[in-house]
């Protein structure tokens, strides 16, 4: 019944609202949307709980439906979903469905404790096991070869090869498996393996256009790789020949060399022959001229074995920092450290080749070091050097 209010004269309902509607009326819009999102039909984001840290019965029931039926039926259902994703080029989602299909085929045939382990498939006692096994084999082959395609598109080449191998264990005549494994091997530059896969596939289907194209691509890539490898070998052989020639040139001149673990970075400056393949051609050395008393230096990138130090000092002097003009051609002496730890004086007329060929000095880490001091301070510096060596 309805009653008339004295003020407005409008009839007001007297029956109470249904409980469900009354509950919704008391909620905010956000709370209503959150509640609807827990229902599988209205879900926009995955919510596996009932909002109170528990299970979502509706969602769990929907998940269970995916595992209703025989193993072949469950796997086929996942395979079909995978195929739909693959047609849309959704390779990650497609691969997940194929994963589930393969897992369903490997699921146990008896029902364990519901709280223990993944979903399982119940056995129908009236099932034709032989026919079911054929269906499972067919679906498994399709899932492996389709997952191989997903991995190929995702550039997971090794996984693609493994899936193709699994396919061929089921069906050794699957041409797609040979083709896709050949593509994956080619992408990894495994030319022999790619060639083998392509050859085996063409042996089964000689007119297969995709395999013929792959065969051409493999041949092209092989020619390129062989060319690169040939160039690399030639370069290494030439470098080895140059090193051998340089070593022969140094030995024939009696020049000793030594390498340490703390070699300086000389960039492209190096000991080399004028003609890298002729040991009798002129040698040049990187030379560091030190002015030890003043902690200064000059670097000569290519100092010929036929040059004297004074030949170079002639254009180096005067030194910009030598305000006292101590360093003049006729007013300096030069020394090199010997193998024994002493000093040898470098005469004005001595070529670098003669100094190094005396056997008393050695070229350390491809660098020659010569110390230059003024005559006025030479004896003092020599005494200090010997004192340091003695210590």
Shape field: elongated
- In the CATH hierarchy, what is the class of the domain at 272-390? Alpha Beta
Let me know the largest β-sheet. Answer: 6 strands, mixed
What's the CATH superfamily of the domain at 272-390, by name? Phosphatidylinositol 3-kinase Catalytic Subunit, Chain A, domain 1
Rg on CA atoms, Å: 43 Å
Number of helices, where a helix is a run of at least 4 consecutive DSSP H or I residues: 13
The first-to-last residue Cα distance is 119 Å
**Proportion of residues in helical segments:** 40-55%
Query: SSE order, as H and E?
Result: EEHHHHHHHHHHEEEEHEEHEEH
- Tell me what the CATH architecture of the domain at 272-390 is: Roll
What does this molecule look like?
It is a single chain. With 391 residues, the protein is α+β, with helices and mostly antiparallel strands. The protein has a domain at 272-390: Ubiquitin-like (UB roll), CATH 3.10.20.90. The protein has helices spanning 19-25, 29-36, 57-65, 71-87, 91-105, 129-153, 157-170, 175-187, 191-204, 209-252, 309-316, 352-357, 375-390, and strands at residues 2-4, 11-13, 256-258, 272-273, 283-291, 296-304, 332-337, 343-346, 362-364, 368-374. Helix 9 packs antiparallel against helix 10.
